[in-house]
Amino acid sequence: MSLRLLVTLPLYLLATVLGLVLLPSPLPPVHAAAAGEPAWTLSPPAEPAVEQQLATITAARLFAQPAQPGGVPGGQPPPPEPPLTPPDWRISAVYTRPSEAVAVLSQPGQPDKLLHTGDTLPGGARILAIRSDGLRILLHGRRLTLSTYPE
Q1: Tens digits of per-residue pLDDT, 68-107?
Q2: Which of 26, 36, 137, 145 is deepest in the core (most CB within 10 A)?
Q3: Contact, 129 vs 136, CB < 8 A?
Q4: What single-letter DSSP state applies at residue 88?
Q5: In whole angstroms, what is the distance from residue 29 CA to residue 76 CA?
């Protein structure tokens, strides 16, 4: 016998034995329910009544105001932070190509305006970059991103 046959024959035998040992055991046979047996069903999960859920939330006081919210004396909440930009405009479209990028500014009662890098937005922000996913702006010394996708 050749040396190659002497080496490969025991490997084949070992692989065959391991295959027989490691084979999964057969599954038990599936049988249908007999005519007199009731069909198996899953009961619906028990849900507490809406009133019980509301009572639990109320008891936990999840929505109650603390005595001094935000650490402000007298129990008054801190004043809301003013928006960074005026609320009456929006970027309605962004168009980008390797050679050009344009943003479309929409304001109520005015025609749409095309903006390029370096232009100024209402409120004083300067456009630093126009990308397909948003605008990079400089506002009051802060670099910000106006995303074209809802966050």
Answers
A1: 455 545 556 667 666 655 567 888 888 888 888 998 888 8
A2: 137
A3: yes
A4: T
A5: 71
Domain with 138 in it = 90-147
The answer to whether the beta carbons of residues 91 and 104 sit under 8 Å apart is yes
Tell me, yes or no, whether 111 lies in a domain: yes
Q: Is the pTM of this model over 0.85?
A: no
> Which two structure tokens, joined as six digits, stand for 83?
């928006």
For residues 69 and 80, the answer to whether their CB atoms sit within 8 Å is: no
Could you report how far apart the first and last alpha carbons of the chain are, in Å?
73
Compute φ and ψ for 113, nearest 5 degrees.
-125, 135
Residue 114 inside a domain? The answer is yes
- DSSP label of 99: T
Q: Which two tokens stand for residue 122?
A: 């209402």
Provide the CATH number for the domain around residue 129. 2.30.30
User: Tell me, what amino acid is at 102?
Assistant: V
**How many domains is the chain partitioned into structurally?**
1
Number of residues in the chain: 151
Q: Could you tell me if residue 100 is inside a domain?
A: yes
